[in-house]
Amino acid sequence: QKEVEQDPGPLSVPEGAIVSLNCTYSNSAFQYFMWYRQYSRKGPELLMYTYSSGNKEDGRFTAQVDKSSKYISLFIRDSQPSDSATYLCAMRSNSGGSNYKLTFGKGTLLTVNP
Amino acid sequence: DTAVSQTPKYLVTQMGNDKSIKCEQNLGHDTMYWYKQDSKKFLKIMFSYNNKELIINETVPNRFSPKSPDKAHLNLHINSLELGDSAVYFCASSQEPIDTQYFGPGTRLTVL
To answer: Rounded to whole angstroms, what are the CA distances from B57 to A57, A97, B29, B54?
Structure first.
């Protein structure tokens, strides 16, 4: 079983839809959870960052972490064509050395159609 | 005002050649990384340096050798290139290993 599983999609939605993106993980040591957005032929950029369980909201984006289920989600409200990108979840533990490394999901390709 | 820059952006070369990719960050960060993203978009860390010291070295063939001349630069040298090395290589940096990572634009390497 891979450490982080993410459905690669592709996911295609109409403008204005609510989008739900998800990742599951197997390593219970993961404490920090991130969502990166990657536009075509660009580097990933950090979108949301959460620690441990709970919700975090930033504008149209909401990140949720359920550590008991080892499941994280990113919700996008009122999706826009400019949200079309690949969304990668990433996570790491809080111990030292090589455990600082980020483990990424494979990314979900999202297209928002006008 | 590019935060993390990489050169070249594209690299096309023959099998067996040796090539280098350069990375520079102007964020004043202490930690830099190299990632490989394969054709299926899977992003995997290769190396990480903190204050010019190697702290992460994943299972990468020893044909890949990172070099950090100073905290602002982390270069990647690849010897005897193979077809399977074709990928996009991303450099990233963060203030500390636990902090947010900022990625460069990537170098698309094609080995023929």
So the answer is: 35, 10, 19, 7
pLDDT digit string (tens) for B61-95? 899 999 999 999 999 999 999 999 999 999 999 98
Closest-CA residue to A72 (of A87, A57, A54, A46):
A54
Interface touch B56/A100, C-beta < 8 Å: yes
Optimal mutation site among B5, B42, B43, B59, interface A, most CBs of chain A within 10 A: B43
Q: How far is CA B38 from CA A18, A63, A87, B66, B73, in A?
A: 29, 26, 16, 19, 23
Q: What is the pLDDT of residues A20-46, one digit of tens each?
A: 999 999 999 898 999 999 999 899 999
End-to-end alpha carbon distance in chain A: 37
The torsion angles phi and psi of A100, rounded to 5 degrees, stand at -70, -15
CA distance A62 to B70: 38
Element (H, E) at A31: none
CA distance B88 to B92: 13
Q: Which tokens go with B108?
A: 């698309």
Residues of chain A with pLDDT under 70: 1, 95-99
Position A69 scores a pLDDT of 93
- Number of neighbours of residue B49 by Cβ within 10 angstroms: 23
